[in-house]
Amino acid sequence: MTSPSTTAAPADPSTPTTPSSPTVLARTLRAEWQRLWTVRTTWLFAAAALLGTTAMALLAGHDARGVGQTRPGETVWEGAQIMALLGLFVLLATAAVSTTADHATGGIVPTLQWTPRRAVLLTARTGVVAVTTTVLGVALALLAGVVLHAMAGQLALSVDEGTDTLLAVAYVDASGALLAIGLGLLLRSTAGAVVAALALMLVLPLLLGNFPFAWAQQVADVLPGTSAIQLVVGEGPAGHSTADARMILAGWALAALALGWARLLRSDADR
Question: pTM of the full predicted structure?
Answer without folding.
Answer: 0.86
